[in-house]
Amino acid sequence: MKNQGGRRWPLVVLTSSPFHGHMTPTLQLAKALHAKGFSIAIAHSKVNPPDPSNHPSFMFLPLSDNLSAIDDSGSFSNFIHTLNKNCKPSFQEHLTRLISEQNEENRSIVVIYDFIMSFAGSVSVDLNLAAIVFRTCSAAYFPAFLARLQLRQEGRFLEQDYAIQEMVPNFHPLRYKDLPFSKSPIEDWQQLVAIFSKQIRPSAVIWNTIKSLEDESLTRIQEHYQVPVFAVGPLHKITPTPPTNFLQEDITCISWLDKQPPKSVIYISFGSLVTLDKKMLTEIAWSLAKSNQRFLWAVRPGSVCDSEWMEFLPEDFIEETKERGLIVKWVPQRELLSHFAVGGFWSHCGWNSILESISEGVPLICQPANVDQMVNARYVSFVWKIGIELERFERGEMESLIRRVMVDEEGEEMRVRAIGMKEMVKEAVENGGVSHDSLEGLVGFISSC
Ligand code: UDP
Predict the structure, then answer these.
(1) Is 51 helix (H, G, I), strand (E, B) or coil?
(2) Which residues pair with 297 in a beta bridge?
(3) Contact assessment for residue 136 and residue 23, using Cβ atoms and an 8 Å cutoff
(4) Which domain of life, per UniProt (predicted)?
(5) Average pLDDT over residues 231-243
(6) Domains by residue range for the chain, with CATH
(7) What is the mean pLDDT of the segment spanning 64-79?
(8) How far does the centroid of ligand 1 lie from the alpha carbon of residue 433, in Å?
(9) Does the Cβ of 18 fall within 6 Å of ligand 1?
């Protein structure tokens, strides 16, 4: 296809950080743009690479990162710093080569980059290419991040504040404890701010969210960037893609769910990155046992400190719950959340998990761990009222929350609101819906570059 200047539609080069929750929506966005007629290239780290066989029409550009794994033993900010430093030269080489090839074909290049891969923005600007930033977090996280920055600069946020339940003045609905990175060491936060403050001004911004859900935060984003903002989510409902599969999915859980009564199972997962200590997980186990509810628990190998998989679980817990509980390593989460037997989701509140839960009308128990998860949990529990946040990590409290979500009238009310959101999502992605139209706007924007 050609744009108004008679040039062929641009080649779109997307790059994602190697986190599951970033790679999956990046591939979904790539697939959506490919369906609209764009040629696609994916620049990726060698850690957790995407599987090219799932996307035969894409070009793949490996970046020399010199990293062997996501290093969760060191600090998050060190990892991001090294990733940015190491990937930059090969990204630049790929783009330089692609520019001369595309010039011959009378075609420009547009780069869409994950915010974490900030080097991609600066390389693109240096090479005179349009650079669009793609955010895979909630829109609400953005003003919260700015609030955290401002409070720290004004000396109004100290590390010990993270436990504070008080509302932050002028930053409704956030409490101090909800602010991003409030649980991270201050050095980590400062290094991240140093990395992210070097971000270029992008040509446009894409957010994996829905305008009707996060209108106010999107307006703040628009005011901040002063460039077009496209809210095109939830992308998994716009273009379902094969799972990114950093881990093998255990599909036996679906046949187990088939045998359970409707809305009777609580699904527990803390995503692809969070690690928790044995003591907390043992409390979770006993709360599940005492609640008498059916459960499906995805325990990711390596997600429990000092435990390879589920050795931390007491044998009498396994014996006591074997008739009504299933523990697996990794599940097909999107499929599972749409299953009739699932009635609740106990989640760390990663944004993909929230979008997937909202899209299927499933209420939540929120147990956020870090980064944007506290902000997401606050919106789920306090603003949208489709979940309850776990505040005290002991079995009695957890048991009571399970019953409130799965059995009590309160849970039913949350489910009704969640189902309302499911309808909102459905409308947003349909022809004429806000996300559908925003994607059309993005297509128009890229094709004119
Ligand atoms: N996920 C999955 N199977 C599991 C657990 C998680 O497929 O057993 C997927 C889930 O569907 C979601 C992603 O992993 O798309 C987790 O992303 P999220 O943003 O929720 O959290 P993160 O892993 O980035 O902390």
Answers:
(1) coil
(2) 268, 327
(3) no
(4) Eukaryota
(5) 89
(6) 4-243+431-447 (3.40.50.2000), 252-426 (3.40.50.2000)
(7) 76
(8) 26
(9) no
